[in-house]
Amino acid sequence: MTNNKITRLFNIDYSIIQGGMVWVSGYKLAAAVSNAGGLGLIGAGSMYPEVFRTHIQKCKKATHRPFGVNLPLIYPDIDKMVDIVIEEGVKIVFTSAGNPNTWTSKLKAHGIKVVHVVSSIKFAIKAERAGVDAVVAEGFEAGGHNGREETTTFALTPMVKEHLSIPLISAGGIASGRGILAAEILGADGVQIGSRFAVSKESSAHTSFKNLITELQDGDTQLTFKELAPVRIVKNNYYQKLIEFYKTHPSIEALKIFYDQAKLKTGIFEGDILEGKLEIGQIAGLIKQVKPVSELMNEMISEYNTVKQNLSQIR
Q1: Cα–Cα nearest to 269, from 221, 198, 216
Q2: At what angle do helices 27-35 and 293-312 cross, to 10 degrees?
Q3: Which residues pair with 222 in a beta bridge?
Q4: DSSP annotation string for 37-97
């Protein structure tokens, strides 16, 4: 977790990257993770360009440690977002939901380290060929957008590792020191953690959303909208209405209307836990308290070291 390919690539203390989640990953969360020795990411997916710029500027004031941004490449104003990244001097960009060939060269030409999020071996290879500095392999367990193949992190990580010469970051279903160590054993050089940080005090998610997540058990989330962009959501009223909607055999266009991005803001940011779309990973069943980022980082690092030491003593 320390002094490896990822810590050296980003000049951080621990190879723990915070996911750039929509309506969750503002500058407060990113700065807190970076100040604790990991790599914080501002999630641009839910921000207008000038709001995005403001979060970058505030993050630079809130931390002197490295931080980055997550740019969904399907964002309608992605060209403006890329320009803002360059103008504000951001040095680390994680891209997702699109073709890394489109922007990687331009970003790297300005001295920016680029990492791309993938859900399969095929896209991991394409990302490396596009010139990215590292790849995030995100498994089926994750919240937010997932791969249609439904490959789990436990299977995806070692398979992708065999095909890469650049550093590999594992994501999906990781929220503890044990999980971090498991990912390393499977071949990861670092981990990206979303759900656990989404339920931190510094997360910009609504308190009602955070409290609900601490009550979830295994089986309380489901991967949905596979015909569009697969997302894992909580089984609330919105989910039940979606299940009923599927019984009418909806068209792709009808599903797009039901998908309604505004429902994500309604649920996560505004706190309508019944009718909002609540994206979260399967690991939510392990999250029982809302805690400050500093405490979460200390707990994960301590558990990682303890478990690793115990394993080394097994004969």
Answers
A1: 198
A2: 40
A3: 233
A4: TSBEEEEGGG--HHHHHHHHHHHHHH-SS-EEEEEETT-TTHHHHHHHHHHTT--EEEEES
Global pTM exceeds 0.85? yes
Question: What is the per-residue pLDDT across 12-26, written as a single tens digit (0 to 9) for each?
Answer: 999 999 999 999 999
pLDDT at position 315 is 56
> What's the one-letter identity of residue 191?
V
Q: What is the pLDDT of residue 27?
A: 98
Question: 118-127 b/e with 16+ CB inside 10 Å = b?
Answer: bbbbebbebb
Report the CATH superfamily, name and number, of domain 5-205: Aldolase class I (3.20.20.70)
For the chain, what are the domain ranges?
A: 5-205, 207-283
> Which band of pLDDT confidence, cut at 50, 70 and 90, is reported for residue 217?
very high
Question: DSSP per residue over 91-136, as a string?
Answer: -EEEEESS-TTTTHHHHHHTT-EEEEEESSHHHHHHHHHTT-SEEE
Q: What one-letter code names the amino acid at 293?
A: V
Evaluate whether 163 touches 124 at the Cβ level (below 8 Å). Answer: yes
* Coil, strand or helix at 291: strand
Phi–psi pair at 210, nearest 5 degrees: -60, -45
The token duo for 260 is 């309604």
For residue 225, is it left (φ>0), alpha (ψ between -120 and 50) or beta?
left
Query: H/E element holding 302?
Result: helix 293-312
C-alpha pair distances (Å), 161 with each of 53, 62, 93, 288: 35, 35, 21, 32
Please write the tens of the pLDDT for every residue from 79-113.
Answer: 999 999 999 999 999 999 889 999 999 999 999 99
DSSP secondary-structure letter at 200? B
